[in-house]
Amino acid sequence: MKKKPYKRIVLKLSGEALQGKKVHGIDFPMLSSLAGQIKKVKKMGIDIALVVGGGNIFRGQAGTTNFGMERAIGDYMGMLATVINGLALQEALENIGVPTRVMTAIEMHQVAEPYIRRRAVRHLEKGRVVIFVAGTGNPYFTTDTTAALRAMEIGADVILKATKVDGVYSADPMVVKTAKRYSRLKYLQVLKHRLKVMDATAVSLCMDNNLPIVVFNFKKEGNIERILRGEKLGTLVH
C-alpha cells in the first residue's frame, strides 16, 4: 500500500454532484454513494470536511441573469440551497454510522451550528465529518472560494474538487474532442489561461497559501480513496 499523502482534506462538491441523473433536486442513490465513499475515507484515518454547493436547487447567478434579480439576493438564496444539501448529506452519513456536524456561515441555530473555526477543528479531531454550508456568508463569493478559505482555516493539506470529468482540460472535452488533459498545472497557468478548475479568487487564495488542488472524476466510485492512497488521478494544481 502506498503511503497516504494527506492527513486532512476538504472535499468540494457542487450541487450538481448531488442531483445525479435528475434535472434538479437531490438524487438519493447518488447521495448514498457519496456517503459510502466518505465513510471509506474516514476508515483510512483521514480527517474530512466537505463544502457543498447549491446549484441543483438554486443558482444565484442564473436568477440575476434570467430574471433581473439583485445579485446579492440571488446569492443569499443560493447559500440557503447549500444548507438543504448539507443537511441531506449529514443524514445520509449518520444513517451509515458516520458522526457528522453541519456548520453554517449564516446563523440558524435550530438547523445547524454556527461556523466557528476552533470548534470545526475540534470536531475533526474527534473524528467527525464537518460539512460547511452557506458559503462564506457573503454574496459575490462562490463555494469554490469557501472551500479554499475553510481549507486554510482548518489546516487542510489539499482540496479535492469533484467534477464530472477526469481532470482539467484545455477546452470542454464534451464539446472539443481534441481537448488536452493536464496531469499537472501551476496556479499561474490556470489563471493565465482561465482554465475551468475553480474561480480565480479561489485559485489565487490557494496559490498565496501553497494549498494544492486535485481535480478528479467523482462519478467513478472509489476515486476519492485512490487519490488518498497516493494514486495519481485527475489533475494536480500546485
Account of the protein in words:
This protein has 238 residues and is α/β, with parallel strands linked by helices. The mean pLDDT is 91. The protein has a single domain, classed as Acetylglutamate kinase-like (Carbamate kinase). It is built from nine helices and eleven strands. Helix 7 (187-193) runs antiparallel to helix 8 (200-208). The radius of gyration is 17 Å and the shape is globular. It has a nine-stranded mixed beta sheet, sandwiched between helices.
Keywords:
Carbamate kinase; 9 helices; two-stranded antiparallel ribbon; globular; nine-stranded mixed sheet; 238 residues; alpha/beta
Helix/sheet category:
alpha/beta
The span between the termini is 24 Å
User: How would the global form be characterised?
Assistant: globular
**Helix and strand run:** EHHEHHEEHEHEEEEHHEHE
Q: CATH topology, which one? A: Carbamate kinase
Radius of gyration: 17 Å
The beta-strand count equals 11
Query: What share of residues are in beta strands?
Result: 15-25%
Number of domains: 1
Return the CATH architecture: 3-Layer(aba) Sandwich
Determine the number of helices (DSSP H or I, runs of at least 4 residues): 9
Strand arrangement, largest sheet? 4-3-5-2-1-6-10-11-9
Give the full name of the CATH homologous superfamily.
Acetylglutamate kinase-like
Would you tell me the overall average pLDDT? 91
Q: What helical percentage do the residues reach?
A: 25-40%
Largest sheet: 9 strands, mixed
- Low-pLDDT parts are none
- CATH class bucket: Alpha Beta
